[in-house]
Amino acid sequence: QGQEKLNCNPKKENGSHVVLCELGNPMKAGARITVGMELSVSGLEDMGDAITFHLQLRSKNSLSSSNTSVTVMVPVEAEAVMELRGTSLPAITVLPTSWHRVEGSRRPEDHGIRVEHIYELHNKGPSTVSGANLRLAVPTQLGGRTLLYLMELGTEGGMNCTNLPALNSEEV
What we know:
The protein is mostly beta strands.
């Protein structure tokens, strides 16, 4: 009928973590109890798709001591909200219509205006993320002519780049 808070005690049995809850003593004959449990479990990143709980009801009644057990599998789902932020420095670049790059020059300014693109990938949680892939396509050619000349590529925060584009192929 009413709701009561259970008194539960965590302990270790045979290498397993056990939570022992006292439901009622003495309990009236024919009593029905519904128990709802909320668990906070950390370190589920490597648990796979589900976590298994073994629940057992033990009675201390000497006349009818039952030890009913049941196994419950709870699906584990990681959830993370990823956010990609980007900016270009300068934000707007306009080349004069009469501008041409200087062939053979090793000065970067003779090949165009320097533009730096910065991308930040943020995990807004609640779960951690590992093994994320970000695919970034950079248009380097337009109509058979150089649109963007890639000088360098850098990363921070333990990220790795694969399938690198041709960087500074003319050694500017």
